[in-house]
Design brief:
434 Repressor (Amino-terminal Domain)
């Protein structure tokens, strides 16, 4: 994510750990661009991210695009269940972990992603 966004890794760690509540200045735009997400949605979890401009082609979305979209859907659901409101740190952490797990395990459906033991410390 650091390479994609140009945001230093140390800053990303601060956001994910909660040491810094919200990115400042152009960092929000950099993160949103790297994730193909709406900056307002990224910060607040409010609104509709379906309007985010993803690379388009006549073919189906790439596996990475599909995995990211699936990770966002599941993270949205879990975030509301866990916190009852938008939480940028939780959302970013959930999307990151889910995306990596979905790609690694070839998960294709929301039900499979929800039932997966994503945060397990041992390999399945």
């Amino acid at each position: 994510m650091s390479k994609r966004s140009g945001v230093p890794y140390s800053n990303l760690l601060k956001y994910c750990s909660g040491k810094v509540q919200q990115p400042r200045g152009p960092i929000v735009e950099q993160l949103a661009e790297a994730l193909d997400a709406d900056p307002v949605w990224l910060l607040t979890g409010r609104g509709d991210n379906s309007g985010a401009e993803m690379p388009t082609s006549p073919a189906e979305p790439t596996d990475k695009q599909s995995a990211f979209n699936l990770a966002v859907k599941v993270a949205d659901e879990w975030e509301l269940e866990l916190f009852g409101e938008a939480n940028i740190v939780a959302h970013t952490t959930l999307v990151t972990h889910l995306y990596q797990y979905i790609v690694k395990h070839g998960i294709k459906t929301q039900d499979d992603a929800i039932s997966a033991n994503v945060f397990s410390y041992r390999e399945t």
